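DOMAIN: structural biology
WANTED: fold as tokens
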Amino acid sequence: MSSIIVRGLDDAVKQQLAAQAKEHGRSMEAEVRAILTNAARRPHIGIALLAAAQAVGGVEDLPIPVRDDVARAVDFG
């Protein structure tokens, strides 16, 4: 298993992690490990949407509008 060190963590974040760990009945290290594991396993929204579209037959037939507008500078005056 790998280890990491997180420097510069705000004290308020550390206190919140400690409170969450206590609430879940585990060490702060175990709490952080669970948070990181869940975050890493969360599917990428773009890939999830692509998979959902492919599951219902894809999106090949959807019309794609032409984007021919020209960018212009903003006039705040």
User: Anything to note?
Assistant: The helical segments are 11-24, 28-41, 45-55. The mean pLDDT is 89.
